[in-house]
Amino acid sequence: MSIITVSGPRNLIAGGISEPKAAAPHCYVQSMAEMTNAFAEAEHPVPRGRAAAAAAAAAAGSGWSEATAEEIEALLGCLIYMGIVLLNATRDYRADETRQAFVANCFPRDRFMELLRRLRVSEGVVGEDERLEKLQQLIDLLEGRLRRYF
């Protein structure tokens, strides 16, 4: 059985966090969606031409669907929520005993994991020792915008 640990202010859990748009400006989120889509396409390029289009149509439903800014906003909201309501594993947010509707109702499990795996918040390749630098702009942005809740 999983244990639910709640950290942070309870008013966020009650509904204050239901507005992920407040976390990041739309233009920044749109940029994140574009970088995420570019990474996904570079990982598995979309075939071009008639034969490729036919093959892509035959495989429809099994590949990457472009991320939208709205999905990225919802993903950020879920990640913030998951940082407040801590469960043992990501799958526990959908488990019968510990289901968290805020997360479980946002995305199907596979789409959530796809977005999480391909999410990109900055451009360029950064060395192994500078991993945090990739996230620093997002961290600074969220820290400033979420301070009002803490």
Features:
two-stranded antiparallel ribbon, mainly alpha, 7 helices, 150 residues, single chain
* Helix share, percent: 40-55%
Domains counted in the coordinates: how many? 1
- Order of the strands making up the biggest sheet: 1-2
Order of helices and strands: EHHHHEHHH
Q: Tell me the distance between the termini.
A: 30 Å
Please give a structural write-up.
The protein is an all-alpha fold and 150 residues long. The protein contains 7 helices and 2 strands; from the N terminus they run βααααβααα. It has one domain. Strands 1-2 form a two-stranded antiparallel sheet. Helix 2 packs across helix 4. It is globular and about 40 Å long. The relative contact order is 0.19.
Secondary structure layout:
Blueprint: E1 5-6, H1 10-14, H2 26-43, H3 50-58, H4 69-84, E2 85-86, H5 101-104, H6 109-118, H7 131-146
Antiparallel strand pairs: 1-2
Helix pairs in contact: 2-4
A few lines on this structure:
This protein has 150 residues and is mainly alpha-helical.
